[in-house]
Every structure is written in structure tokens, then in C-alpha cells.
Amino acid sequence: MTDMTERKRPETPEGEREPLGTRKPSKRGGGDPATRGRTTIADGVVEKIAGLAARDVLGVHAMGSGLSRTFGAVRDRVPGGTKSVSRGVKAEVGELQTALDLEIVVEYGVSIADVARAVRENVIAAVERMTGLEVVEVNIAVSDVKLPDEEDEEPESRLQ
Asked: CB atoms < 10 A from the CB of 41, how many?
């Protein structure tokens, strides 16, 4: 079936009519869709990513100071409580960059310098890959060394 209705052709700036089908479709909203709007990333998101990346490094026993680990262990045992993957991590997040402070406990016998370098590399790679933010610094504080004969500071569970 043929459309027999007459189509009104758009006029050119000189007042002439353009031939049908020659007009270019205009983009709605203008520009690349990826540039329309803002993405904000919360400090807690970066802290979780960094915490998980730091824990993946061989030689890292735990994250956080002794006191925060003790409170965290108690909180983890409370029904409905969740494990805090961001324990021992503090992030300062801007629009394009982030800076991180990590507090770790290393295992006895490992090279602290090597562990710190590996943590730094792993954290930077994970945060930059997942968020697109530039990591300007990762400060690492080693707060303790886990000795082989030391027990963890987590309280004993009353349940078997």
C-alpha cells in the first residue's frame, strides 16, 4: 500500500524546500550519552574495595587496630550483624581522585616492606579499575604483627 498523503518538506534558511529524506536526524539531549550527568562514588564504596583488595595480599593477617578488631569481632557475632570489610580503611574521595589510609596487621616472618608494596599495588589497581578514580596515595600503617603462637583476639563463640 502506498502512502498518498502529501508530506510537508522542511524549508532551508533561504526559504527553499529540502527534498524529502535529505534532512539529518537531530540527536536528542545533545552529545555523547556517557557525558550526560554525574556519577558520585561514596567514601564507603572505595573503602570496601580497598579493604577487600588489601586482604587478598599474602602476609596481611587482619585490618585495623587491636581495639577496632575486637569490637568488630563482637559485632560480627551479633545476629544480624555484618562483617565490616572496610575495617582499617579510611578513604577521602573527590570528583576525580581518592586518597587512602590503611591500617594492617602482618604475619610474623614476612617482609613488611614487600607486603606494604603489594598491598599498595593491589589496592591502587582495584580502586582505579572499579571506580575510574585516580588513587593519589595509599598510606599504610602496620599496627601489629601476628605471632605464630598468638591466638586471635576474637571472643570464643558460646555455640558449638
From this structure: 18
